[in-house]
Input
Amino acid sequence: MECWFTTFPLFKNIELLILVIDKIKNIYITTFIYMCGIVGIYLKNKNLHDKLGLYLSVMLDNMSTRGPDSAGFAIYNNKKINVYKYSLCIPSDYKIKEVEHKLHEKFNDVLIKVISDHFIVSTKITPKKFTKFIKESFTNITIVGYGKSIEIFKQVGNPKEIVKKFNLKKFSGSHAIGHTRMATESAITLDGSHPYSTGEDECLVHNGSLSNHNNLRRILIKKGHKFDSLNDTEVAAGYISNQLSKNKSMSKTLSNCLKNLDGFYTFIAGTNNGFAILRDEIACKPAVIAETKDYVAVASEFQAMAHLPNVNQANIYEPEPGVIYTWGK
Output
């Protein structure tokens, strides 16, 4: 008796069928099970601000299995300052001293903090003027974020190594979000790494995939928005920035995401005031929240926050589908 596998017209042999099944299995695993890790922590207790980087570093370390290809994080410090901070990633083919010299030559008030291959440039120069100078003077230097509170660091490679590279455990601040990436739809590049920042003191990390990002990208481009990548998360970040620029609250903005962003996703969106989390209404992307009197922690898996102080006494719960949770002002 002849096996039906070999006679079925779509499959000439059993080897082809096995390959197809394996491909489907891999798509399922990367789409619904692993596919990136997201983390966030908001410190209610100001006495813990010096430990923000320490807490976040272990959270990212513990999410490295979900996203081994790249990692990044945004640190917020709510100390009031009257200058902008620009986060720059400097490619290896640039000489650090030469870049510093050009910045000092152009802007008199510049202060530069060098952390590995990133600069944090502090100046009163407006974003429009500073961005124009960087793009005209340095072809491959990337502005990964700017604002008066935020500092962003991201790079390709193993998340544990990136945490060490930027010495994350030494950072302080009020709140932070981070991401470990498993590249499924675009190349492993800096442009594909999270967080994405498309507005002043704004950033977004995302686990999931959007199906209508190309149409939404075209709409936002017509409204004057510019994109540096083909990544769907940058489009979501641009949409959120566009909504916030219309004086909409974060809650209202994320509510509109549910109406206008198609696909499956868990977002953590940050501003200088705090952050928010949203899962789409199907909620196939995991998330867990742990809240105590001292902090709120958010992650794709509980193991990311297992090291946090008194986490066993925390209120631990899974965010409901389509419900917006916010912390901060």
Notes: The chain has nine helices and 15 strands. The first strand starts at residue 37 and ends at 43. The two ends are 72 Å apart (CA to CA). Residues 1-6, 23-32 have pLDDT under 50 and may be disordered.
